[in-house]
Amino acid sequence: MVSDIHQLPDPELIGFAHESERRVADLLDFYGIAWDYEPRTFVLDEAPDGGTLSAFTPDFYLPDHDLYLEVTTLRQSLVTRKNRKVRRLQELHPGIQIRVLYRSDVERLFVKHAA
After folding, report:
1. How, if at all, do strands 36-37 and 60-62 pair?
2. Assign residue 38 a region: left if phi > 0, alpha if psi is -120 to 50, beta otherwise?
3. CA 4 remoteness from chain centre
4. N or C, which end of the chain has less CB nearby within 10 Å?
5. Pairs from 23-27 (Cβ < 8 Å, separation ≥ 24)
6. What pTM, to 2 d.p., does this model score?
7. Domain ranges of the chain
8. Distance between CA 60 and CA 49 in Å, rounded?
9. Looking at the predicted structure, is the pLDDT value of residue 8 above 60?
């Protein structure tokens, strides 16, 4: 259920990095699930001078579920790198809930939603 204080964003006004992200946003809207697009970047590794060496910005945050979603429909080599970042995020912030939606997950969701 969508909280009274959180408005659903308009997917048409957001510059999604990939079409699959826009489709996931449409699906979340269809089910009335509140979401924010790329609301937070987590620093994963810092240089000695305090600069950022590595960071990760999950695609969606679902505030009513306190859950981050990362949508990945990329080739396997990039998925492996993204999985590494997710593991590092969980090491540094064990209280953060994050789920990765892989290509097969996204395709299943779209097939179910189209039916």
Report:
1. antiparallel
2. left
3. 22
4. C
5. 23/106, 23/110, 24/59, 24/60, 24/69, 24/71, 24/101, 24/106, 24/109, 25/60, 27/109, 27/110, 27/113
6. 0.80
7. 37-114
8. 30
9. no
